[in-house]
Design goal:
- Two copies of one chain form a homodimer.
- The first copy, chain A, is mainly α.
- The first copy, chain A, folds into two domains: about 50 residues, Arc Repressor Mutant, subunit A (Orthogonal Bundle), CATH 1.10.10.60; about 140 residues, Tetracycline Repressor, domain 2.
- Chain A has eight helices and no strands.
- The mean pLDDT of chain A is about 95.
- Chains A and B meet through helix 7 and helix 8 of A and helix 7 and helix 8 of B.
- The structure holds a DNA duplex.
Chain lengths: ~200, ~200
DNA sequence: ATATTATCTGAACGGGTGTTCAGGGCAAGG
DNA sequence: CCTTGCCCTGAACACCCGTTCAGATAATAT
């Protein structure tokens, strides 16, 4: 027996990625086996290797895709306006973007150490590029004379850590709506940079 | 052959805990085997079971001990003064305490999902108790009329996330000294709550 | 209708996993 | 000096790991 009814690359491929994403986020990369992923998809473990060269690449490509989408979507959102407007847009973007992708975020921040050295380097570079977007906004605000930020590098990390922490408690069915969360965090961010 | 020269419970026990702490922090609980821990200590894997009932308990007891020490040390630091003073003390305590314990923090935040349900519940309760310390300070500041904090619960999580993020970039041999870091973060925290 | 190709199965590979335990050696107590 | 008991070894247990691959089948192209 072999190829079963309805089998198709364009269906199975995304299903494998979705299953891996979900399971990696839930249990961690190291704790999830290829056989578990295969079972979730309804396929034998060997079939996964039609879609990924190995387990490491499955993790890496999920993280890479996430970071690429993050950077692309971010760039559109923060290119216009004065520093305060751009900062507001960045905060709102970060929160909104991350709320719909809890699993991706979790993996992007938790599984860095399970990447091979060269894969780690690639993801780390993208992560730094994202930080640089915020740092550029803070520096622009300093130049405009509207922000009170003694150390833009540290402030960048502080703000991103604060915003990303939302994923540890936010639930779609919780007490706060996304706009309410965005507003709360924007006010904290705004005040912390002295606007 | 069996008991080797120099073997002793009071030496081996802590060495096992130290090795597990280091390896869990470096590679993650699921990626570290009992044989790796044993090798780090210079002992056979079977010997570990004189000191821990199983691998899960080894992780749990490390996390539990960390949380207990965190809560005890914290309580001493924030019991006196007005809300602003207590907030300042909390921020400084959190940063100082965490800087010397990078491995413990890493595990406490990253390995929650590898705890058994009942162990998770225990640690989660302690974590919430720690959050409650900060939330009580914020609420006290509201009562005193000195803080501008629309939502103390969310603000608590935001501040803790921001402060804990330090562990992802701080290095003892880096550009900033601990007091400088503490000062930078205190100013951001202070401004974000409107003081 | 037939040939080709894409897709999947099922078994196998070598090796690693957490954990148990009988037995042996070291140190301390009588 | 001899016994007692703690500490450790080394082998074994049953099972799971990532990965490979020959062979079988379904869909597609001719």
């Amino acid at each position: 027996m072999a190829r079963t009814q309805g089998s198709h690359s364009e269906i199975t491929g995304p299903r494998i990625r979705a299953a891996a994403l979900k399971l990696f986020a839930e249990h961690g990369y190291a704790a999830v086996s290829m056989r578990q992923i295969a079972r979730e998809v309804g396929v034998q473990a060997g079939a996964l290797y039609n879609y990924t060269p190995d387990k490491q690449d499955l993790l890496f490509s999920l993280m890479k895709q996430h970071m690429d989408e993050l950077l692309e979507a971010c760039a559109d959102r923060v290119k216009d306006g004065d520093a305060t407007t751009r900062l507001h847009n960045f905060v709102d973007f970060h929160i909104t973007f991350h709320m719909g992708r809890a699993d991706e975020i979790f993996i992007a921040y938790m599984e860095l150490r399970n990447l091979s050295p060269e894969n780690f380097h690639t993801i780390e570079t993208l992560r730094r590029a994202y930080e640089d977007v915020l740092e550029a906004i803070l520096t622009a605000g300093l130049v405009e004379g509207v922000f009170d930020v003694p150390n833009p590098k540290v402030t960048t990390r502080a703000i991103i850590a604060m915003l990303t922490g939302i994923t540890t408690w936010y639930r779609p069915d919780g007490a706060l709506s996304p706009p309410e969360v965005s507003d709360l965090y924007w006010n904290m961010t705004r005040k912390s940079v002295g606007v």
